[in-house]
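Fig. S4 source data, part A: sequence.
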Amino acid sequence: MPALSRADLWSLEEYAEIRPTFRREVMTHKKSRQVPLGEHARLYFEDALTIKYQIQEMLRIEKVFEASGINEELESYNPLIPDGHNWKATFMVEYPDPQQRAVRLGELIGIEDKVWLQVEDCERIYPIADEDISRENEVKTSSVHFLRFELTPVMMAALGGDAAIYAGVDHPAYAVEAFQLPADVRDSLAGDIMATSVN
């Protein structure tokens, strides 16, 4: 998928007018790009639309209108758009209670490397995690990680034939057995791959 540029974004004034409609569109779109992993973790798969929304919201909140500031946001967020041969996702560990969350993050060191996806009967895909900066230390992991799942040509071809996608987590302190993704999520993720896999 091509990177976003300043030409793809609305000005602050334009965005203020279109935001309610655009936000509804993005929220509907995101429903088919979320994968709950048990009760306390979730994958949020990114694409050009979700990233455009994030950039527009950041520009709005920070009231950024100068070219240099807009370009900084583009440089920060564009790497989260999938490249046509991978999936990119925000992985979140979700414990509402702060004390419980602190304890669990200490027990879940390395969980970002144990999340996996699988196309039909191909081998499991473990992610490349947190390429920008490390988000854990010797005492705890972060509640937010950025993951990249690289697909082989065989996996990409299988997705074109309606192959199922499975997910799970192998971490000893938070194991999630293999389960099949719903059809709408499968189709949304397959669209990320099929859009450019034939080029």
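Fig. S4 source data, part B ends here. The two ends are 11 Å apart (CA to CA).
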